[in-house]
Write a structure and sequence with these properties.
Shape: globular
Radius of gyration: 21 Å
Distance between the termini: 51 Å
Helix content: 25-40%
Number of helices: 15
Strand order of the largest sheet: 11-14-17-21-18
CATH topology of the largest domain: D-amino Acid Aminotransferase, Chain A, domain 1
Strand content: 25-35%
Largest sheet: 5 strands, antiparallel
Bound molecules: adenosine monophosphate, glycine
CATH class of the largest domain: Alpha Beta
CATH superfamily of the largest domain: ATP-grasp fold, B domain
């Protein structure tokens, strides 16, 4: 099977690495890819958000499966165009990708499917914003309705800051969603869907804020680990039963079946499970950790989903070890990351046992003497992934890798999976 993977980031590097382990996958192509991806498969520099360009490339390659990594091409209708042209596609059509593309739409579907989520209101003007802020109280949660790469959400104790963010979104032409604050640890559960059926992967936890101890602004995600030893028993079954399956059922009834990954962003609160958000794709950087443990061949699984054929399957097979990944980001991420810094120590990190480096914002550059070198080319630059017998071992291996890699201004969190390794993640109880 020849697979084309669309997208430029660490998630796509992780997907491609896992696809290459599948004996049924004979060839993988990437568009546009990055420096790390180009070291393992051919890359094609097209605009992967363009339905025409993506379809033309799939036709030229005669792809047997197209896997769409990020949300932007999904929302832009790349999956629709590829399906129209006859390709099996892993990734929802634009209509179904609205589960991620519009938070207001996601709330509507959750209400219809009776999925537990935070109470919320949609606002288009200052009066409604103020009313909703006062109705829910502090901490305030204000979300840009549209896509914002994980950065459109403000959670704050300060009413003035909440109001300011809401008004900034509204003046930029968006509506905002204001909602009740959910206490309790967060979980990302990726559910593979074929339009009707649902197959969960292993739950992971992501670290959204830029600085240690969850301080500073939200980012796309600064690290992750899986599995989660502190989760209540049968948690995944409950998410399938109360969240993923009802959502997939409602999408099918509406005539917009969901094919791809339904990313359930959840909070385990005092009052039980709640959905924080849906995404229509694999999460980044959770995928880097989750796929490091997946033993079931990924290409065959994604092709079955793309063909609407998940059917009766054996349970997925997992490496029993724990995976941790730590994201290294460029200076000034998430505001205005600096690009073009030479990265050192990648080979030394890769040479460590059970450690791999998955690239996100990297590019091959030519230095003054004409030698190629790898430089930073985005906010999140790479993730160091490690497998260990438990969280402590996986953490120390991942950080040993991180300590080998340097560039000017590199930043990373030092506390990824630290609380969990110490057994200190608290699930609130009533
Ligand atoms: P989202 O883009 O909806 O995932 O929001 C980004 C991050 O903001 C989440 O991962 C949470 O950490 C936080 N967040 C979003 N909604 C809530 C909520 N209702 N209560 C508490 N935290 C939230
Ligand atoms: N890690 C969060 C996301 O992928 O949206």
């Amino acid at each position: 099977m020849k697979v084309l993977v669309l997208g430029p980031g660490g998630r796509e590097h992780a997907i491609i690495t896992a696809l290459l382990r599948d004996p049924a996958v004979t060839e993988v192509h990437s568009a546009p890819g990055n420096a790390g991806i180009s070291a393992i498969v051919p890359t094609h520099s097209i605009d992967a958000n363009s339905p025409e360009e993506a379809t033309a490339l799939a036709e030229r390659l005669e792809a047997d499966l197209v896997v769409i990594g990020p949300e932007a091409p999904l929302v832009a209708g790349v999956a629709d165009a590829l399906r129209e042209a006859g390709f099996p596609v892993f990734g929802p059509d634009a209509a179904a990708a609205q589960l991620e593309g519009s938070k207001a739409f996601a709330k509507e579907i959750m209400a219809e499917a009776d999925v537990p989520t935070a109470m919320s209101r949609v606002a288009h003007d200052a009066a409604t914003v103020e009313e909703a802020l006062d109705a829910f109280g502090a901490p305030y949660v204000v979300k840009d309705d549209g896509l914002a790469a994980g950065k459109g959400v403000v959670v704050t104790e300060r009413r003035d800051e909440a109001l300011e963010h809401a008004m900034a979104c509204i003046s930029a032409g968006s509506s905002v969603v204001i909602e009740e604050y959910l206490d309790g640890p967060e979980v990302s559960l990726f559910v593979i869907c074929d339009g009707q059926r649902t197959v969960p992967l292993s739950p992971a936890q992501d670290f959204k804020r830029i600085f240690d101890r969850d301080e500073g602004p939200n980012t796309g995600g600064m690290g992750a680990y899986t599995p989660l030893p502190w989760l209540p028993e049968n948690f995944t079954d409950e998410v399938i039963r109360r969240v993923a399956q009802p959502t997939v059922d409602v999408m099918a009834q509406r005539g917009t079946p969901f094919v791809g990954v339904l990313y359930c962003g959840l909070a385990v609160t005092r009052r039980g499970l709640r959905v924080i958000e849906f995404n229509a794709r694999f999460g980044d950087p959770e995928t880097q950790a989750v796929l490091a443990r997946l033993k079931t061949p990924l290409g065959q699984l994604l092709l079955a989903a793309a063909n609407g054929d998940l059917g009766e399957r054996e349970a997925l097979q997992w490496d029993l070890r724990t995976a941790v990944d730590v994201v290294m980001a460029a200076e000034h991420y998430p505001d205005a990351p600096r690009k073009g810094d030479a990265i050192h120590g990648l080979d030394d990190a890769e040479a460590l046992d059970d450690v791999s480096v998955l690239h996100a914002g990297t590019r091959i550059d030519t230095d003054a003497s004409g030698n190629p070198s790898i430089v930073t080319h985005g906010g999140r630059v790479l993730a160091v992934v490690a497998l260990g017998d438990d969280l402590s071992e996986a953490r120390s291996k991942a950080y040993a890798g991180v300590h080998k890699i340097t560039w000017e201004g590199a930043q990373y969190r030092t506390d990824i999976a630290e609380l969990a390794a110490a057994g200190d993640v608290v699930v609130p109880t009533t």
